[in-house]
Amino acid sequence: MEIALGINTDYVGDRGAPGPALEEIARAGFSHVMWGHQWNTDFLYTTPEVQAIAVVMKNLGLSLVDMHGSSGVEKCWYSPCEYERLAGVELIRNRVDMTVLLGGDTVVLHPMITDPSRIDQWRLQGEKSLRELERYVRNSGVSLVLENLFQSDRLEERDLTLQGFETLEYFFERFDPGYLDFCWDTGHAFILGDEAFRRSCDLARRRLRTLHLNDNRGDADQHSPPLTWGSPWDTIAEVIAASPYPPGKPLLLEVDVRTNGGDSRAFLAEARRKGEDFAARVSQARASSARASSARASSARGSGGERCR
Question: What domain of life (predicted)?
């Protein structure tokens, strides 16, 4: 089965009117998008704005898969300041509502990374917010997903102690799959090294619900298309094949022409080509996994022994 591809709307910029970017995405042959605009602001989308976006997407033949929720500036879902935390909850509700109206199924959140003296308080505040949101989100039919990061949104320091993975485990131990799952940003794992990549693979096998597929040299967050650098993409394909990632869900690229250079149309064309190459690897990995499962089942039936009479 051919796997569809999606790409982030903010591949060339995350502010301003999204119409031109959507037109270029459709021109490049993509069928699905991950909404990336305003991912790092406190912007609240109103109903008229969302309805206008829906019309543009319908006319272009584009479908929403995922929404990148805002990491928050003053409206932050894990802020130790209570009114900021409550405002962050409202910001997440806003993105959930937008996702429902546009037909997507997940909202991506950034977890907290901070100095060790503050992390317990931030996690407790985040847990409080997720519990307050749970019924609302479940009733919407949308899931929340937490993304693996390589540095703090607020400190801009690299997470060399892999605190972010401890935070992901903290929340996954407290909330069920289906409500709270994992968003795998492949590039973020590459930056932090082998142990981070291993832990991201482990999380993906257990809780993967959406993807930010991108590549880098390991030294910066370039957000290049998959298969650009010497990263372990065959392993990633195998992990996706073995994960709970919905088989019919498009594979999602999160790329950025600004950090890669060149013409934006040529960049989109290259991203699509490399995305299709990677999708073929995922299809092959799924086929291999299915054959292995069938062989194991046949072996188990064959070793059942003689029946009692």
Answer: Bacteria
Confidence label for 305 from pLDDT (cuts 50, 70 and 90) = very low
What is the distance between the alpha carbons of residues 19 and 53, in angstroms, rounded to a whole number? 8
- Note whether residue 105 is domain-resident: yes
Q: What is the mean pLDDT of the chain?
A: 94
Q: What is the CATH number of the domain that holds 99?
A: 3.20.20.150
What is this structure's pTM? 0.94
Task: For residue 102, give the nearest of 181, 33, 179 by alpha carbon.
Answer: 33
* 307 domain residue, yes or no: no
Query: Does any domain span residue 259?
Result: yes
HSE on the CB side for 275, CA within 13 Å? 30
pLDDT at residue 307, as a whole number: 39
Q: What is the pLDDT of residues 62-74, one digit of tens each?
A: 999 999 999 888 9
Confidence of residue 303 (pLDDT cuts 50, 70, 90): low
Q: Please, what is the Cα angle at 7 between 137 and 150, to 5 degrees? A: 75
How many structural domains are present in the chain? 1
The Cα–Cα gap between 156 and 163 comes to 14
CA distances from 217 to 95, 224, 225, 304 (A): 32, 9, 12, 51
Tell me which residue range forms the domain holding 77.
5-302
- What pLDDT digit, counting tens, does each position of 261-283 carry? 999 999 999 999 999 999 999 99
Q: Considering the domain boundaries, does residue 309 fall inside one?
A: no
